[in-house]
Amino acid sequence: MRFMKSIPMLAAALAFGGVMAAPPAQAIVDGVESRHLQGAVQIFNGQNLTCGGTLVARRFVVTARHCFFSSAGRRLSLRNFRVRVGDHRLGQGDQHNVCETYEKVGVSTGDGPGGQAQGAFSDILVIQLREDVNQANQIAPVGNQLPAVNDNVAVKGWGHRGDMKVATMRVQALNREIDNVPDAMDLRRGNGITQNGDSGGPVMLGNQLVGVISEFEDNPQSTLAVEVQPYHDWIEQTLHSNAC
């Protein structure tokens, strides 16, 4: 088994969870290049792409919680994070600063690096930006229903040196606790598979956000995503926050 949360420390390349933690040379493997964002955004820590996310309101993005922690479980400074919105090209799009994050308490968390240190949180996070985005047409609705087993969903992410890709994956299982990740959706490879660097990115059913990419497994090749539906009401309430 291989986890998106447990990536070896390397000297260079993209950051993941920490400035020096580096994913392999590509993120989504196979799939197809796409310009159809459906709210997908790029999250940078300094100059390095860390994770993906989904724009769900003019100032709010949903992503994976572990993207904002180092491999040792240390919370990273928000001042170093930037979110790029509105462009499928790697490193392009309007840049926005992060001013606050919101976490869901009361559930267990994954057992990768930082998992035990994070405490009773799910691997889902809402980011508040310092200012509204201009591309309101890129906002994706937060789904309040789960897909069905055997449904096809779309996952989106950016490669190490490439523009956004989308892969179709099949829902294998729902409402599971897998590898201590609660409310997990097990996705099996379709025309592509997520890899390191895709964490936090959207799982879309039609035009709705139904999952947040959390981990991947090598055998069988699959992706674990946190289901959005159990957190729908909490996300909607968080969108009314005004911490900054």
UniProtKB/TrEMBL annotation:
Stored Gene3D superfamilies: Trypsin-like serine proteases
Q: Which organism is it from?
A: Kibdelosporangium philippinense
The Peptidase S1 domain covers 15-240
Name of this protein: Trypsin-like serine protease
Report the EC code(s) recorded for this entry. Answer: 3.4.21.-
Question: What keywords would UniProt list here?
Answer: Hydrolase, Signal
Q: Which PANTHER family match?
A: PEPTIDASE S1 DOMAIN-CONTAINING PROTEIN, PTHR24260
EC class: hydrolase
Q: Does the keyword Signal apply?
A: yes
**Signal sequence bounds:** 1-21
Q: Which InterPro entries match?
A: CLIP_Serine_Protease, Peptidase_S1_PA, Peptidase_S1_PA_chymotrypsin, Peptidase_S1A, Trypsin_dom
Does this UniProt record's set of keywords contain Nucleus?
no
Q: PROSITE patterns annotated for this entry?
A: TRYPSIN_DOM
Per the record, the coiled-coil ranges are: none
- Segments spanning the bilayer are none
What molecular function terms (GO) are annotated for this protein? hydrolase activity
